[in-house]
TrEMBL record:
The keyword Metal-binding applies. Keywords: ATP-binding, DNA-binding, Metal-binding, Nucleotide-binding, Repressor, Transcription, Transcription regulation, Zinc, Zinc-finger. GO terms for molecular function: ATP binding; DNA binding; zinc ion binding. This is Transcriptional repressor NrdR. It comes from the Bacteria. Negatively regulates transcription of bacterial ribonucleotide reductase nrd genes and operons by binding to NrdR-boxes. GO terms for biological process: negative regulation of DNA-templated transcription. A zinc finger (unnamed) spans 3-34. InterPro entries: ATP-cone_dom, NrdR-like_N, RNR_NrdR-like. Its cofactor is Zn(2+). Binds 1 zinc ion. PANTHER family: TRANSCRIPTIONAL REPRESSOR NRDR.
Amino acid sequence: MKCPFCQHEEIHVLDTRVSEEGDAIRRRRRCGKCDKRFTTYERIELVMPFVVKKNGSRTEYAAAKLRGSLTLALRKRPVAAASLDMAVQAIEEKLLTSGKREVDTHYIGELVMQELKRLDKVAYIRFASVYKNFEDLAEFQDAIEEVGQAPKT
């Protein structure tokens, strides 16, 4: 590792701790040449599956796209940011534990709908209307009835 200030390669570790969340190792380091200090973090690198789009093309998983979809559906709804974070984390965990190297957008859409149904019924209907491409009022009514019959969690 090189010093971020002077690019010198002689770096000393001063202190090592586990982060408060327990998901990283925090190391305080000092450069042997310029004597400046800096912090590094070591985290597990998890490989998310590739996403297969409807047209068959493959792309890397993008957490920002997932968060953006959820945020758009939850716009102006009384859902805390922490709940949104937990929903994203739950979806990503399901993707990782699926063991698949590739997942299609339909699978991700279904995971999003599960989380939205749990978080906010109105956001679920918003997302479902676009995701399922509702054509008429009857499809909205069916979705509303489906949400109304869901057990409360």
